[in-house]
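Section 5: illustrative case.
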């Protein structure tokens, strides 16, 4: 894989990750407004999403694999 291809894949994965995180944030807001979920469970979900949003990937190990892993965690979290 060329550096340019790697850069393109990383950019695409970053965009996908941001869309998943945005989707999770919107979902939390909808749950909060509808009051369909008990507050303790909603708070737990908010904490999990916040941890995913703020998880740091050190530059040394930043890779396509790490972005794929984080994207999958967001997708799994958004389906619960």
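Designed sequence:
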């Amino acid at each position: 894989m060329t550096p340019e291809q790697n850069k393109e894949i990383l950019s695409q994965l970053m965009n996908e990750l941001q869309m998943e995180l945005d989707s999770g944030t919107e979902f939390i807001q909808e749950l909060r407004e509808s009051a369909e979920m008990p507050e303790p469970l909603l708070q737990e979900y908010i904490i999990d999403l916040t941890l995913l949003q703020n998880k740091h990937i050190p530059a040394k190990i930043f890779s396509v694999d790490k972005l794929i892993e984080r994207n999958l965690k967001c997708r799994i979290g958004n389906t619960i």
